[in-house]
Specification:
about 325 residues, 12 strands, 9 helices, 3-stranded antiparallel sheet, 3-stranded mixed sheet
Length: about 325
């Protein structure tokens, strides 16, 4: 038996549809009024490294501005403030009255220096060289600078900067692998060859007296020579093997593992994003020449804008009537 349908049944069917439509409209309006939130994906290690490199590059670019200064018995705090304001660069300075044990810089140290049209970074390094360690230049109390992981320009004594260290892996396999050299080839014994052709014994026709064998130096021994070169030339007083407390260096499977502050890593390998040599431009007879090194691809153009250039309209075609005969 078919179920009986009341006359108002279609109205009852339409009512839930209307309610659903109203609910959907309310949800859509609530979604529009609610603040949009989207979870941010964490940066990859490579992207984070690029951001850190860009921050450090921008800092050193500002410190490349030329300065002409003349300091006569000026306080160190005033000198650093002047360089900071002239280059619009933020400094993080470890002062002695802020450091435990007074290991930071002396605000009242007097600085005398003259410089003309010199990069601000060079001026700063000359200023810091005036604050020498009383126990010898390069000691724990001498001043230097370094970049933090997020691009901050940090100034302080080596003892203060030694608290911020990182581990870097330097591959040196190409420096310690020894390519074999064979100056003397084995001699060919023709008599043995003839005897073998006449049915003699199967003796080898090559003669090797085994006296000119090349002795190879083990990789670990060659790595120790490289370690000695580094520790003797880059911050020699800061390595733990030399009695310091700032840096350690170990060899492992073709790599050097170095745990040290940034200023030590800078002395070993520099910054991979900073040119290894300066570039310059010349103007000769109205022409400009720019010297570019291999690191020119790492440079960042500044104050350059794009300007639209309209094309040159083609010249109007003219026709010459034929000459009457």
């Amino acid at each position: 038996m078919m179920p009986r349908t009341a006359p108002n049944a279609p109205a009852r069917r339409r009512r839930p549809a209307a309610l659903i439509a109203a609910s959907v409209s309310a949800m859509a309006a609530a979604a529009l009024l609610a603040p949009a939130t989207c979870p941010l994906a964490p940066l990859s290690a490579q992207a984070a490294q690029v951001q850190q490199d860009n921050a450090g590059r921008e800092t050193l670019v500002r410190l490349s501005a030329p300065l002409t200064i003349r300091f006569e018995e000026q306080r160190l705090e005033d000198v650093l403030r002047f360089i900071q304001e002239a280059t619009q660069t933020e400094f993080v300075i470890y002062w002695g009255d802020d450091e435990p044990g007074g290991s930071g810089l002396d605000r009242d140290a007097l600085i005398s220096l003259n410089a003309r049209n010199a990069p601000a970074l060079a001026v700063l390094e000359r200023v810091l060289s005036r604050t020498r360690d009383p126990f010898g230049f390069g000691g724990a109390g001498s001043a230097t600078w370094q970049l933090s992981d997020w691009g901050e320009f940090t100034i302080g004594t080596r003892e203060s900067l030694n608290r911020e260290r990182r581990v870097e892996i330097y591959p040196i396999l190409d420096l310690i692998v020894e390519i074999p050299d064979y100056p003397e080839a084995p001699a060919l014994d023709l008599q043995s060859v003839l005897q073998a052709g006449q049915g003699g014994g199967g003796q080898s026709p090559f003669r090797d007296d085994q006296t000119d064998r090349q002795e190879f130096i083990p990789d670990a021994e060659r790595a120790e020579a490289i370690i000695e070169i580094i520790t003797r030339n880059v911050e020699p007083e800061q390595w733990e093997d030399a009695g310091g407390t700032a840096a350690t260096i170990r060899y492992w499977r073709g790599n050097l593992l170095i745990n040290a502050p940034d200023y030590v890593h800078r002395g070993i390998n520099g910054y991979r994003w900073w040119p290894s040599q300066r570039t310059f431009s010349r103007n000769i007879d109205g022409r400009r020449y720019v010297s570019m090194a291999r690191d020119v691809g790492l440079s960042v153009p500044k104050d350059l804008t794009n300007h639209p250039v309209s094309p040159i309209p083609p010249a109007a075609e003219t026709t010459t009537p034929p000459r009457p005969e």
